[in-house]
Amino acid sequence: MTEQFSRTEMLLGEAAMDILRRSRVAVFGVGGVGGYVVEALARSAVGSFDLIDNDTVAPSNLNRQIIATRSTLGEYKVDAAKNRVLDINPDCEVRVYKTFFLPETEDEFDFTQYDYVVDAIDTVKGKLALAQKAQEADTPIISAMGAGNKLDPAAFEVADIYKTSVCPLARVMRYECRKRGIKKLKVVYSKEAPVRPVKDSGEDTVRRDTPGSVSFVPSVAGLIIAGEVVKDLVAGKGRNVD
């Protein structure tokens, strides 16, 4: 293992690092949460990524998204994330898909190719489609629940969707997962009640339903997710990696 991962290898061991190097992780959504997932996994020696997002970096992303800097404004988020990954580890293989994952686009992706799937997208329909496709392919998945309108990064927990509480998005997902026969879904969620925005920030340019967000909440959710992915992969719970 190269020197840049030597400190990680001290804790995980050579065999675990080899598993991570051979793993292929798909990250759907590379914004506030997903960007930090990609960053941490790249710094953990994960060897191959599929990055899926059709959004571009906007000024409103600068307050919380690790891929958002003045130099990346206007770039596709997947391109900005790919450039960061390759700047960290040039040996990585990174595939980018400039598309939003929805039921209408789900057939573009073969979930049997992934060792792990990360759901960091915003739409309930997309999240449910991801959960269903992962279940059908027997591919492990972890899903981010709501991180908007939250201020307490210590309130996040890892649980099965059916053991969640408080989070409004998790409540909807529990109901819809049960209807669709999705037996389990590992999630990161917060028991913090959503904070009511103090005021409309630029009502003319920001949709009324746009949640507020800060730098230290979605980042923590993303790092927790990355930690779960690494833990599961090195424990042999990835789909393809022995």
Structure notes:
The chain is globular, with a radius of gyration of 17 Å. The protein is of the alpha/beta class and 242 residues long. It has helices at 6-12, 14-21, 34-42, 77-88, 124-137, 168-179, 218-234, and strands at 24-28, 48-52, 93-97, 116-119, 141-144, 156-160, 186-190. It has one domain (13-234): Rossmann fold, CATH 3.40.50.720. Strand 2, helix 4 (77-88) and strand 3 (93-97) form a beta-alpha-beta unit. Helix content is 33%, strand content 14%. The longest helix is centred in the last third of the chain and has 17 residues, at 218-234. The relative contact order is 0.17.
Structural key phrases:
seven-stranded mixed β-sheet; alpha/beta
The Cα radius of gyration reads 17 Å
**CATH topology category name:** Rossmann fold
Instruction: Give the class-level CATH name.
Output: Alpha Beta
How many separate domains make up the residues? 1
Q: Calculate the terminal CA-CA distance, rounded to whole Å.
A: 19 Å
The count of DSSP E runs of length 2 or more, i.e. the number of strands, is 7
Task: Write a concise synopsis of the structure shown.
The chain is α/β, with parallel strands linked by helices and 242 residues long. Helix content is 33%, strand content 14%. The longest helix has 17 residues, at 218-234.
Layout of SSEs?
Elements: H1 6-12, H2 14-21, E1 24-28, H3 34-42, E2 48-52, H4 77-88, E3 93-97, E4 116-119, H5 124-137, E5 141-144, E6 156-160, H6 168-179, E7 186-190, H7 218-234
Parallel strand pairs: 1-2, 1-4, 2-3, 4-5, 5-7
Antiparallel strand pairs: 6-7
Helix pairs in contact: 1-2, 3-4, 3-7, 5-6
